[in-house]
Each structure stands twice: as C-alpha cells, then as structure tokens.
Amino acid sequence: MADRYLHVTGTAPGRFLTRKLGLPQPARLRRWTPETQSLDGPLLHLTAGDSSVTEELAALLAATGLPVTDRAGTAARPAGIVLDATAVTTASGLGDVHAALHPVIRSSAPGGRIVVLGVRPSADDHHQAAAQQALEGFVRSLGKEIGRGTTVQLLRITPGAVASAESTLRFLLSPRSAYVSGQVVELTGAAPDPVTDWAAPLTGRTALVTGAARGIGASVASVLARDGAQVICLDIPQSADELKRTAERLGATALPLDITAYDAAERIAATAPDGLDILVHNAGITRDRRLANMPADRWAPVIEVNLDSVLRTTDALLTSGTVNRGGRIVATASIAGIAGNNGQTNYAASKAGIIGLVRSLAPRAAADHGVTVNAVAPGFIETKMTAAVPLFIREAGRRMNSLSQGGLPVDVAETTAWFAQPASTAVNGQIVRVCGQSLLGA
Ligand code: NAD
Questions:
Q1: For 405, which of 26, 132, 280, 324 could close a Cys bridge (C-beta 3.0–4.6 Å)?
Q2: What keywords is this UniProt entry annotated with (predicted)?
Q3: Residues with CB under 6 A from ligand 1
Q4: ipTM given for this complex
Q5: How confident is the prediction for the chain on average, in pLDDT?
C-alpha cells in the first residue's frame, strides 16, 4: 500500500496545504542508488576538547573519498558532520559539544548525516559516565528536532582502535543509512578483516537469507548480492514460485524450506558445502490478538518461527562449523520487541527474545567461532506485513517517527549489509533500530 501522504507532500500544492494545516512534512530521503552512492557534499570534522584520536579519525574520514574540512564556514554546506566527543569526561566539557555544533547546525545540508563519537561510559568514573551518557540524550534530541531528512547517531569507539570504526562510519555517513536515526552503536575495538573493494565488500562471501521470497528478505538478498555475495534464498515451500523468481533475478540459489523443519540446519549445510559467511534470520510471522483472545495455536507458531527456529538453527550451524570463521549472523528483532505492542504479546515476546539471544551469544560467538551476532530492529517498514495493518494504525506507524514516514525494505537491507561486512568485526552484540527514530520505545 503506497504512502499517499508522502506523495502529496512531495508536490508544491501538497506541501503548501499540509504546512498551513501544521501537518508533518516528511522529507524525501536520499537513499543509495547507482548514481548517488555517497553524500553530496563535504564532511565537517569537529572536535570537542582535546581528543587523542584526531589524526587517525581524519585519515579514516579522508578515506571515504568525500572532501573533509575541520573548519566551519570554509566550504559548501556540510553533507556530513562528525563531532569527536571522545575527550568529553566532565559535565562542563559538554559545553564544548554545544560550542562545536551550535554555530554549524543551521548550515548543514538537507538529508545530512551527523555522527557524534563518544566512548563507553565508565563503570569506575561517574563523572566520565555522566558526560558520555549525556551524549545519548543530546543525540536523540537533536535527531528529533533537526528535520529535513537529516539523521543523527552516537557511535562509541575504542580510542586505541579507531580503524575498527571504518565500516560503521562509512555506513552512517552514506545514503545507505537514510532511515537509521537516533541510534547508539558501541564498537568492541576488534580489528577489521581487510576489505579490498569497498564498492563490493562481500565478494567471495556466501550468504543465506531466510524469508527471502518477498518483502524485507528479498531486499536483503538483493543488497547482499549487489555488494558481491553469492546468496542462497530460503522460504517456505508454499512460496516456491515467488522464491524462484526472486532467486533468478539475483543469480541466487533458491532453497524452498520451512525454517521450523526438524532438519532445517542440515539441509542448509548441505546447500552450502563451503560453509556460510553470512546468515540472516529474517523469516517472521505475526498472529495478532490480545492475550485474552489468543489461543495457543496463535501463540506457538510465532514463537516457533520468530525465535525458537532462530535459536535452533544458529546453535546447529555454529556447532557444526557451517558458519565460517569471520562469519556474520544477523537476526531480526522489531521495535515491538523493545516497546511492546497492543495485540502482539506473542510477536513482541519473540522479538525481545531475539534481543536477548544477540546480547548473550555475541561475545561467546566472537571468542569461540570468530563470528559476530547482531540484530536489526525494524520500525514501520512498507511491506505486505504492514499493508495488512488497519488504516488508522498504519498511518500512525508511518508518521510517528522523526522522519515522518515509513521505511522501505532496502533500509533494513542496507543495515544488514553493514553488519555483514568483513570490516565490521567490531560491530558485535548490537541492536540497531531501522525506524526513522520511532517515538515508540527507547
Ligand atoms: P513478509 O511477511 O512480507 O515476509 C516474510 C517472509 O518470511 C515471507 O516470504 C514468508 O513466506 C517467510 N516465512 C514465514 N515463515 C517462514 C518459515 N517458517 N520458514 C521460512 N520462511 C518463512 O514480512 P516482512 O515485513 O518482510 O518482515 C520480515 C522480517 O522483518 C520479519 O521477521 C518481521 O517480523 C520483521 N519486521 C518487519 C517489520 C515491518 O514493518 N514490515 C517491522 C519489524 C520487524
């Protein structure tokens, strides 16, 4: 179901009328296309206080290929602003954050990207912890007020391992992250695996995507293939025709298989004799009803497809060594798993379960198997699943976020592709919302 409101506000009379009525003004988001692969303008590199990472960071930003300046007002309107706040360790030091951004915020280009760099709040120094946690409130508020399709994130890095942030900075400072805003990403500092071609970073990798016949899964398969991966698309046998079409379009392999089948992991392993480098658990279902009206036969399949089969296949594929070292597992949560949702006790439980799985398994999977485990948590994404939502709730879902519009499957796919990169070794145990900074949840 197309977003007609977005279409109307994209026309001059529509914009005039909706502005007069005080209605939301969604900006047209700048997403990746073959013609617009990077931001359209310079990066402004600012520093709050006396940072120890200025030179390394400058080198990373220069490697993006965008022109970089460290002085406001010297260049065209910045398309991206990186504020290094890693040195902010006191409440008074927060004044440096204000002093750096206040003069330039108005001049940032529409559809811009703002990334504030911080460090993990300390367990031993409550002044440092207060200052670094303060950045979270700052970033989330700026994301809500800035408008014009600009996104704002907090990226916590390890000062001794700035290079581990390259894939994340490239993602957050690009059109690929158009619908990701108000997020806090914390990197481990683990060294990145080498990337020979940033335009096709998944070359030579084999990926399996569940629920890939349509919707978000088909888009994930498509973006992973675009980035060079050889993809196996899995979906239920009842969707075999749609699955075959999707796989053929991408030069991928179709695997008609119900992920809840007892031998699913074995059959996946048999389809990938050289192992998997990327495993994307995307298949998911809803069976909505309030708990008082929800029989067990609406509860059980949601837990089974969305959570239990993910746990089972992950365990089996890790233990059997089917997921190769350097591998990437990406699961699919939901903002319903963070905020809860009326009529979705089963679904929200399954998606919150995914968050628990990721947080617990990530450090062990890295230590034992050299594999990262992360999750995307989509907000309102325009798919068949959300087209089935009643009109009023659908409209609320679309508008109740900082970008005043629903996301597209490709937004979730781009985030998945960033997790999947060889250079994203330091991205582990993260739950990244792809929700345009939805008002629901944290
Ligand atoms: P969709 O219904 O359009 O597609 C889901 C796909 O999963 C379908 O092709 C379906 O056949 C497949 N599938 C279902 N059960 C399966 C099974 N047992 N084995 C194999 N494949 C199976 O849904 P979507 O909107 O593309 O959602 C994809 C994922 O994103 C789901 O996990 C969903 O919960 C999550 N999500 C979606 C939204 C949204 O707004 N669309 C929001 C939050 C989370």
A1: 26
A2: Oxidoreductase
A3: 210-211, 213-217, 234-236, 239, 258-260, 282-285, 305, 332, 334, 378, 380-381, 383-386
A4: 0.99
A5: 95
